[in-house]
Amino acid sequence: MAIDKKLNILKGEIALVTGATRGIGESIADEFAKAGAIVIGTATTKEGAENISKRLSGTDLDGHGIILDVANPEQISEKIRDLKESDLMPSILVNNAGISLENILMRIKKDEWEKVIAINLSSAFYLSKAVIGSMLKNKHGRIINIGSVQGSTGAPGHSHYSAAKAGLIGLTKSLAQEVGSRNITVNTISPGYISTDMTKDIDDAMNKSLLEQIPLNRFGQPIDVAKTALYLASSSGSYITGETINVNGGMNML
Amino acid sequence: MSVEEKVRNIVAKQLGVGEDEVSNESSFIDDLGADSLDTVELVMSLEEEFDIEISDDEAENILTVQAAIDHINSNTD
Lengths: 254, 77
Hints:
The complex is a heterodimer of chains A (254) and B (77). Chain A has one domain: 3-Layer(aba) Sandwich (Rossmann fold), CATH 3.40.50. Chain A has 8 helices and 7 strands, in the order E-H-E-H-E-H-E-H-E-H-H-E-H-H-E. Chain A has helices at 23-34, 46-55, 73-85, 110-138, 150-153, 159-179, 204-212, 222-233; strands spanning 14-17, 38-43, 62-67, 92-95, 141-146, 184-191, 244-247. A 7-stranded parallel beta sheet of chain A has the order 3-2-1-4-5-6-7, sandwiched between helices. By secondary structure, chain B is mainly alpha-helical. The radius of gyration of chain B is 11 Å and the shape is globular. Classes of the chains: A alpha/beta (254), B mainly alpha (77).
């Protein structure tokens, strides 16, 4: 009989994970819940939030979904206030929600630029600001920002996305320096090509060419990123801050 | 304890100074050595103790013990 020992390395933690209905966010939310954290996952729709709640209510799992548009600062304040009233102020924040749009810079309209920046970068600012107070008070916290390899390398058609993801790196480093004295770590994970909805529409020729650039010869899976996030969120990551951890199969050795 | 006494007590505790060093005129940053994190946490402690909310704008102007006392007095019954 196999003994399945639950490691519970996040026991006692409350984790807020944005964009937790699918892809990397889903995997992070699930891994954190399995590791013993109470997990609040965000979705932009009621259905998405309900699916999160369903997923995170198995045996030994404690979590639920909430609706949040991360590009809306007032909504962020409101939802964090709700969490505070339910005694669920997060000790871990994972800024994962993001969108990728594609257009060469010359064709990007104001709305598209602002939308990508708002969802991918400004959200991290507003959410960090909303949760950092209680982390300061408790002298304990983890903020994990999900960036992208493109934040360091750029990519044609992704000037807004790359700008936002590069921005996360600067935000991470600055905040890490501000709050380190209170035992709060702030780090970025930069995933490479991960098999999610965000990358599913890449055509076969492009896929082949990408694979040739990846020493580990496969696309990443959400769990590859989630395990890294788990490491940073746990006590194992307590001496890592202001860092960018690249999870890209070696495709860009930055 | 009066509002004044409570405020001086919280300030002393937050900034790690003796209560005898804290007068109503004391400036958190200039006199008591607070850094920006200290001032943020100080405002949070005051919010908690007096069960009030202090906005970012209001917090920016609370730079001395007296300013804190005045703000609390005008925002509580």
